Input
Amino acid sequence: MRAAALELFEEQGYEQATVAGIAERAGVTERTFYRYFADKREVLFAGSQRLEQSLVAGIAAAPDGSNTAALVDAALTALAANFTPQQQAFARRRSAVLGANPALRERELLKLASLKAATIAAFTDRGTDEGRSILAAEVTLSVFHIAFTRWIAGAEQREFADLQREALAELRSVLG
Amino acid sequence: MRAAALELFEEQGYEQATVAGIAERAGVTERTFYRYFADKREVLFAGSQRLEQSLVAGIAAAPDGSNTAALVDAALTALAANFTPQQQAFARRRSAVLGANPALRERELLKLASLKAATIAAFTDRGTDEGRSILAAEVTLSVFHIAFTRWIAGAEQREFADLQREALAELRSVLG
DNA sequence: TACTCTGATGTCAGAACCTGACATGAGAGA
DNA sequence: TCTCTCATGTCAGGTTCTGACATCAGAGTA
Output
């Protein structure tokens, strides 16, 4: 169904494509679609839960006594592992569809926020003060998001982790 | 209509309240509601355009030769002007409704992102490099958002600008 | 006053989204 | 073979949102 949806969105645009159409192409009924996805948009965000889990696990697995900066680093490393060169093509197609529709970008922001909330919880679980955890999560997700954007947009094949290091360095420089 | 909607959302919850009900309470038809608001959620975000305008104007009005940090400061000052103690009560009611519903938080994130995009554009208009503008906007909106959250949540009446200064200082410390 | 034009609102029909309730059917296990 | 469970189908219906056309009040003008 995810493949059918992506194809249909590419062919007709998100608004124009109907759930009935997606279901038909996937060989199921509309009702079945809604049993798998909470709404029409979710079909493009099926992987986001796995990403969140790996992020949380990465923070939990950081060495004992890690300070906040080290935890941020662990979080970024865990995130980067989810974006290999093989996935870039699919991610680009998906991203093109997302970029073309405000409703989908909206949902993407929600997923990002959910990721942020999970990160905050993971930081506080590691004993970080809550206020500090919020700021640290803000930094983590900002860096991730910028790196992701550049990963999708960049012509050359860059390592995701490199892009993150770059973004983090720039962020430091802005704050002087 | 905005008042009618807020009341109804408080009484019945966002999902339960229908657009027909809001329109009826406001003494108009459902169709008229949709002429003023693009969709059901927008009724709670009517002021966001004005906020964006004042933000952009604030950045444009910063002194010549301002560096990035000074532009961020001008942006934050312009934002803070929109949040006076008189508005706090209304903002709290609205925020409570928003917090209770994922669909509304989703829309809030979109508005925040729109604010960020406008900020980026305003920074580049002032001659800031694009990559740097993105980072600076990220910082600006993060600080604003944190301050706003605390402004809503805090029991005591704090000046919005003070809360922003505080958040900015903490952000610096996290990046160490 | 009478006319006209414009803008806001009402009315109506309908497509698409989404949900609840119940039915069906295939496969696992006793 | 029986039964239980789980995925899917079927159906009805409420809600959101839109397009097309009608109506009406008020402003401006002859």
